[in-house]
Hints:
This protein has 183 residues and is α+β, with helices and mostly antiparallel strands. The protein has helices at residues 13-22, 33-39, 50-61, 78-98, 112-118, 153-169, and strands at residues 2-10, 27-30, 65-68, 71-76, 103-111, 128-130, 136-138, 174-182. The termini are close together. 20% of the residues are buried.
Amino acid sequence: xxxxxxxxxxxxxxxxxxxxxxLSKKSKVxxxxxxxxxLSILPNVDMSDNQAIAKAFTDTTGEFCEVDEGGIYYxxxxxKSAVVEHYRKKIDKPLMKLNFLDSYDIFDAQMTNDFLNMVxxxxxxxxxxxxxxxxxxxxxxxxxFVDENSSxxxxxxxxxxxxxxxxxKYSQDSFCLxxxxxx
Length: 183
């Protein structure tokens, strides 16, 4: 079973300001020699032509690639990736100790108050919250496929309200990691 979990990370005002300013900025990321050499296994890629390599990378990953004097690059939210990787190391053991998942992937990082404004648009409304003090709060039941005609719809609406109230308590000086969890 898959479900979405939000992990709230409390930070000081200066760190939150830095994260808020940098989270969505995109910057050039040059392909490493290892990435380029992996593209050599693709058929019909002229490995001596950077434009051909860039096209192969774009076709394979969907990331639009360009070439300049520095090499082959694409635009990425490198800062967001760095934040995710930094906090992945910090939350991994505590999450596993909570014993509510077998594995997880972090698929996004957002400022908590921005996340609250977007959460209703998520494909799967979150089923769990891990607060800054590592308290796990879960939905009373799994709401996998709930629509207005479902017998669970009123329970789902109650969970949505409770979820938003809890997350709102932490919306100042924090950001959150959005996890795709598996059991």
